[in-house]
Amino acid sequence: MKRLISVCLLAGLLLAACADAGVETPDQDAGEYTVYFAAAQNGKGLREALMAEPVAYAAGSDSVALALAALTAEPETPGASSVLSDGLAVEAYALENGQLSLRLPAAYERLSAYDRTLTAAALVLTLCQLDGVEAVTLYVADKVQMRSMTARDFMLYDQEADPYERQVTLYFTDSGGRYLYGDGYTFTTSADMALEAYVMEELIRGPKDASFVSALPPDTAVNRIYIDENICYVDLSAAFFENCPGTVLGERMAVYAVVNSLTGLTGIDAVQFLKDGEMPDKLLYLPMNAPIDRNDRTIRDGSGSLTDASIYLWAESAGKLAEIPVLLEPAEGVNVRVQEFSALQILNALIDCKDELGYSNLISADFTLNSLKLENGVCILDFSGAFFTMSADDSADAVQGFLQAAAASLTSISGINGFRVLVEGKRRLLDGEAPSGIYYPDTKLLLE
Q1: pLDDT at 436
Q2: C-alpha–C-alpha distance, residues 228 and 245, integer Å
Q3: Which of 62, 96, 217, 442 could cross-link to 25 by cystine, CB 3.0-4.6 Å?
């Protein structure tokens, strides 16, 4: 049923709005538009959480004020409610060059992240229908809450509106939580919703394949998602940051499930995370104050025959060693040869490993492992001469850092307890060695 909003309902809003100098008041011909309200039964996504009602307006109406009044009014649908109730009425607005700025009361900041997103979605989806309104920015006092939002920023769409199919790969983890696994999805998309929004909605919803689990923390919600100069900005609720697993592996899975899924889309080179509109400094150990590139080392092809192993890199923000999963060729042969082969692969993987976001490898490009053999659970390592010139700035710290990383990595192999070091075939005494000459890992340096 269509409704005609009376002039009386506009009075309070118009008084506040006209207090701002230079406010544009676009008029429209008679017609109708859709106003969005909170649904009686909130679902998991915005499609289920919002409902719409058509509203008629008269020719010559101030369309912004009329729409704001309609958003404030009680909806006709039983159980539905205005998102601007409970002290959330817009205090003032200004429209300039297609950008509509709304000033909301302080009560908006006290809403949950989900309710802030719901309120913003109802405002933007309603107001961006108006002639002359291209985007909406929300303020509380002078603080920007959400900037330049359009209808495409929110996960609401009609599959019958210009549908087309898109095939994408989304990444989930498994019960082990060490790697991401790609799962193919076919989306029937429409012009009302950007593909990156579909991706985030499905990542939050979780995998269809029962052998996978979602890597995202509980109660994660998307406030806004948009692309600017090939960077995808993902504004997430505080729940993503506060409920993130408190482990190196859990953090890697959560971050790269998002990054690897989105960078698989055409036109997205990296992902910038935001926390309720603000740029965070870091999550647990991963810095988040700059765009994050794709990391294919977090992905495992479930059909492969590679062996799961671990190397250790230095977590820059914690000053401790973090376990990084790696995939190696399976070892064959008698038991001692299997251990030697595994140790050789792990040492070479550590030496060849490039730094990745948040984690450092202290090895120089010229450093090599000449040989390795196993004697009674102890690896005898013969390194090249570049071993002692790994860092021009602080070679002693670099060498010790590598030795701790090597000790942690090697002793992750069953049956290996420590190692001795030769350099170009000659014995060298190292700081931290036991009297026996065997170098052992320092377990106090290992992160969970």
Answers
A1: 67
A2: 29
A3: 62
